[in-house]
Fold:
Amino acid sequence: MLIGRQAELAGLARYFSSAKASEGAMVVLAGEPGIGKTSIAEAAAEHARAAGMVTLRGRAGSTGPAIPFRPLAEALLSLARTERIPDDETLTPYLPALGRLVPDWARPEPRETSLIVLAEAILRLTSWSGRDRGCLLVIDDLHWADRETLTVLDYLASNLRDQPVLVLATVRLGASPAAELVKTLAQRGDAVHLELERLDRAGTTELVASILGCSPDEVGEPVAKHLYAQSRGNPFAAAELTRCALSTKDLVRRPSGWWLVGGTRRQVPLSIVQAVEQRALQLGPDGMRLLSVAAIIGRTFPLPVVQRCVGLDDRTLLTHVRAAIAERLLTGGDGTPGWYSFEHPLTEEALLSLTTAADRVALSSRVAQAIAELYPGLPGTWCHLAADLHRRAGDLPEAARLYLETARRALHAGGQATAIAVLDDALGMLAAGPGEPAWRELRWELLETLLTALAEDGQFDRAAEVAAELRLGNPLWDTGHQVRQHVRMAWAAQVAGRWEDGVRQVAVARSLLPPDAPESDTAVIDVVDAHITACRTGADADHVSRSEALARRAIRGVAPGDDPETACKAWFAIGFSTRSRSLAESNEGYRRTLALGTEHQLMTWRNHGLIGLGGNTWLADGEGTALEYAYRETLRSGCITLATNVHANLAYAAVLRADFEEADRILTASLAECGRLRLQSVIRYALMLRAVAAAHRGRRQEMRTALREFRAAGGETSREAPLAKGLAELFCALLTEDREGARALAAELMADYGGMETYFHFSGTYGLVPLLGAVDGTGDPAEVEQAAASQVGQMRWNRQFLAFARAVHHGRAGRVEAAAEAVDAAVADSAVFPTARHLGLRLVAESALADGWGEPGRWLTEAENHFHGSIDVLAGACRSLLRQTGRPVRYHGSGTERIPPKLRGLGVTRREFEVLQLMPERLGNRALSQRMHISVRTVEKHVASLLAKLQAADRTTLCEYATTVLADSTPG
Structure:
């Protein structure tokens, strides 16, 4: 079965029908080697035979001296083997000419030597053979054909229109007389030119499956991905790679399908090597040398380097390059002037396999020299390429030095993962080297840089292993080195969120310096201490202020020009430690970080500056565009660890604007990425946000599950703990009408964190707690104004709640106009926070209704519409309060759409289901009545009805049943 070529075969079938109707044509299938031209031609011949057509086939040869008319003779000989000598009188005059190709038909009289007569003879013979049924003449590999054959085909193509003959030829793309003829024939309308495309991913997988004798679904994703990437959709390459992987047992059958084992293939299949060699030899010795040098460089290569190595003039060089492109060996690369690529990854590997080991060493050395001459200083990726070339040339010390420089540049640009991979490779390369001092010093330099990279990536445990190795037998290991080692270890702990480990490392670093050490010596310690102090929670209420003091001391002790990275870290610490006091000061710290990072090309710290500024904009105005830009820039520059942090921040913003689907998507991706990178602090942060996301949908059980995971990850004593209590538990208690629980949580928040500086600012102490106090009548208006005057209180999330609280206090004092203005301000501030907005309206409406001011009916209607279908308890509370306003209560259909089908079948009503949703909390009837704003008697009636309908023996059984059935249904 021919894979992925059904459209081509269907098109050819139309030409079969036309040939039978004496409307002949010439069709040429063109394409790169291995694209499937011959396979399609063979399938077409089978279809033609099945349709009753006479089928003749001939193939031009690529080996040995050219034989005139070979494909034509081969085709006619196949006819002679099955048909008698033509005795039609119209053919008799042409038998001497045909005898040149078929000896059985030769005549004693002199043979006609004219090519025109021979061409006409073949035309008449094929027309005679195909009378009433059509004739297919297949000429394969036309690119190898002699000029005489091409002349005959030229004549045939011009004279087929009223003949029952279809000529089907295959030709390879590239420069050849045959290709020129096909182009000419297509231009004058005498031939149809069809260029075959490569298979797509699905077609390649189907082809592989056919070779393996299985369905495409049984080809494992890694297998399909690898073979498609290696073959680029070329059927021949895909087939050969599959067979090679089978023979080497790199491709094995498992119960779940076919999978790669032991890495990728170990060699290029010989058939592919031979095919590449055959095409490369067409370019001559200079062309072959050009390709060999290019293969040494890699898949993509710069032509100036190749030219420097092969010594060809511009014209000759470009002639060979164009020929290689025509042969589908090379392509124009990514469009960068002067750069080219190999058409297939296999082409590069095949060419390398054609060179000897000694040639590869010599060429690698020559190419490395050419790159150094053409690109002084080895900018950009040249450094890594030069290192690889020196390694292949056997110059390991130079290769190691260049790998070290590559890693340092990657670190400078924020590419910690790249730096670690390069350094590991270089250290592995030097592992078997001699123990000479120069080698040992080079190895220590590599280890020093690796320690820095691991610290920046937060790999604390591995950093400790490298630090231990550095201490062994290192003559350079003085006090300065020891201090830097512990500072790096402290930074690794800070990035990983292992604060206590960081504190211990800072303490050791300080102990190595005298007590009166100048600020210039302590700056590197102070700056990491500032970051750890700000993030670490404990008994100290002023830890954020102490962080600022440490950072400012570091600023005094460091000259940005001498150590810009330490200066960046210090200014960033000032940015986050001053945020609760002044966003203007905080922005100045972040702007300094951004400026220094940009000036000194420290991409990590440039990104930190962008993130800080974007975060402040979001805190102030709820606007996330700047934060999203920072995330894109962080990803673009390859700072993956940092990007993971920012991604979680975007989830935070999504939760508050009630875009829960987006928040869930981000958190799922973040937790997977953090697990892979072992970023414990970000994992803890994401788990906290998962609890907040559940809380803001009123899903109390789901929130509690997430909080258990958060606390198991060390959340109870973390800097996120206030958010977990306030933004999750307190917010959820209010959404689910658990006013008693909300009061208890508010009291705990104020007792634990009321006077403490916190890293996060939306725990509720500056917003939701004052609003709850105002509604309950226990809050102090002066405290609301004091909170509103603070920087934290002016952040938009907090500002909305404080405005609602101010409205309640004004309304209670009879200042109706001031209360209305405060509600309007709160509504404006809460426009981007829909869940918070409608919760605020519900709470304010309760007070307005009691104190006789404002428009509680309108506010409750808005809130009820918002929460209907998502948080039934809160929507029910709004409806109960609406009845007190005298406004009509609008019901949304039957209200049963959220009741699980099993309960609906038992006759459970909407109000009974609302009671059942609260049963897992094991509340008494009075508590239920307060939560639902209905009488105790009504609660008793609903509970009794549920006991009967659900056949529960007692209230405890009913609570357990509710827990089970609600867990199995959509959370609400």
